[in-house]
Amino acid sequence: MVARVTARLVVLVSGAGTNLQALLDACADPAYGARVVAVGADRDGIEGLERATRADVPTFVVRLPDCADRDEFNDRTLDAIAAYEPDLVVLAGYMKILAPRVVERFPTLNTHPALLPSFPGAHAVADALAYGVTVTGVTVHFVDAGVDTGPVVAQRAVEVRLGDDEAALHERIKAVERALLVETVGRLVRDGYRIEGRKVVLP
Ligand code: GRF
Question: What's residue 26's pLDDT?
Fold first, then answer.
């Protein structure tokens, strides 16, 4: 991606949207180099959509139950994203797997609450706890056709504490995650990058 003055972000969410909020807050500074042009979700009634509305950012919702099948879900999601001509799509707690044709149309980043390739999938925090690791963390990566398998852009470690339950650990991970996501998106949009095999090269 070649950096341009203010990059257009479309952010997809499925829940509380605290990562989205961190991006919205960062984008309030013109020097950050990006603005959130739309927020999409796979469900109604979530705080993530409220956060967008409070920030005067347009929203769209494409729900799988409203579609005839996954193909239609992917088509409608892609059309909704493409309407905003993003430079970068950010999956920030978005809990649906999108078809390759969707994630390959625009550069697409995901934030994942574990140190990939450990603990991919929807239960990363619980899986790390159950395994008994003493360090887990956050991965920001480009999305490819697999599940949590794309090239890693940035990772940060979080210590697991004795007595942690899933909620406590996830809260500490999310605090690190928000900062890493903001920092990583900012670097990508301001400085550009290239992907060489599995390596994401930042200048
Ligand atoms: C994040 O930890 C994300 O990595 C995971 O779900 C959480 C979403 O948090 N998949 P929020 O909606 O941004 O608050």
Answer: 98
Measured CA to CA, the distance from residue 166 to residue 123 in angstroms comes to 10
Q: How far is the C-alpha of 148 from the C-alpha of 176, rounded, in Å? A: 19
The residue whose C-alpha atom lies closest to atom 10 belonging to ligand 1 is 93
Residue range 97-155, pLDDT digits in tens? 999 999 999 999 999 999 999 999 999 999 999 999 999 999 999 999 999 999 999 99
Whether pLDDT at 46 is above 80: yes
Cβ-contact 4, 87 below 8 angstroms: yes
Question: Given a cut of 80, is residue 193 above it in pLDDT?
Answer: yes
Does 34 contact ligand 1 (Cβ within 6 A)? Answer: no
Q: What is the pTM of this model?
A: 0.96
Asked: is 7-192 a CATH 3.40.50.170 domain? The reply is: yes
Ligand 1, atom 3: closest residue by C-alpha: 93
Question: Hey, where are the domains in the chain?
Answer: 7-192
Whether the CB of 137 sits within 6 Å of ligand 1: no
